[in-house]
Write a structure and sequence with these properties.
The longest helix has 13 residues. It contains one helix and four strands, in the order E-H-E-E-E. Strands 1, 2, 3 and 4 form a four-stranded antiparallel β-sheet that branches. It has one domain. By secondary structure, it is α+β, with helices and mostly antiparallel strands. The model has no long low-confidence stretch (mean pLDDT 91). Strand 3 and strand 4 form a beta hairpin.
């Protein structure tokens, strides 16, 4: 059976909320997929006013079958 993965893309303009959400996903068994991506969202003149943060995650959702010896019920 082929492995099955779920994909999730986290996006935020608040660095604190982004960091908190990343930690929550990691605690829930998700794995980072690639690097964090950050780019200016709003620029006034030459000053960056807001940054958008993105991070991709994957999670193996393959159904696992039990292997080994089984017992026969009587």
């Amino acid at each position: 059976m082929a492995q099955q993965f779920e994909f999730y893309l986290l996006e935020s303009t608040s660095y604190e909320e982004f960091c908190s959400a990343v930690q929550e996903k990691l605690n829930d068994g998700w794995v980072l997929h690639g690097s964090v991506f950050a780019f200016p969202e709003y620029i006034t003149g030459n000053k960056v006013e807001m940054v958008r943060y993105l991070q991709a995650f994957v999670k193996d959702i393959t159904k696992r079958e039990r292997v080994g010896f089984g017992t026969i019920p009587r």
